[in-house]
Protein: Ras-related protein RABA5a
Amino acid sequence: LVALYEGLEMALCTEEEQSEDYLFKVVLIGDSAVGKSNLLARFARDEFYPNSKSTIGVEFQTQKMDINGKEVKAQIWDTAGQERFRRAVTSAYYRGAVGALLVYDISRRQTFDDIGRWLNELHTHSDMNVVTILVGNKSDLKDLREVSTAEGKALAEAQGLFFIETSALDSSNVAAAFQTVVIEIYNILSRKVI
Ligand code: GDP
Ligand code: MG
Structure:
């Protein structure tokens, strides 16, 4: 926990040199086609792409959020398709991240089985205890579900992660997934400041 605080403080100080506002780097990770880019598109622009290709063209989007009346900016990084070829992303992608959304597709068991590997990669490349939420996306695909809500919850509990199920298609819980991470980072920092 101390390491987490120190890491977050470092990250905050770095950003504060450029701006008075809070700016948190949050990364989206998980297997190809689980819906990472569409979660970001839904959250940042309220858009959805039914047949999205691997690359939508943005590396990150800065999203303003209101937390306790304070403006917080989340700089949300999307893999832009690297995971399709390498099944991993570079260490530069993780550098400075204080939050992570670890995404799988509830209609594809393999993407849930791969979560452990993504968690290892995250922990290898981040020098701090990143605030992480496990996200079971595509909750609208009820008839195709291969991973139960209880399984997702159990894995999250075992790994000390937040948990939520989302649908970028019907918007359910998308904002909540991002907000959970950013609010937790904000709370950790405020507690430390006090
Ligand atoms: P990424 O590779 O993880 O960035 O995944 P994309 O965002 O490109 O999505 C891959 C495919 O899944 C696209 O065809 C999307 O339209 C579809 N998709 C993404 N999110 C959802 C969702 O919540 N529900 C459904 N039914 N399809 C989704
Ligand atoms: Mg993508």
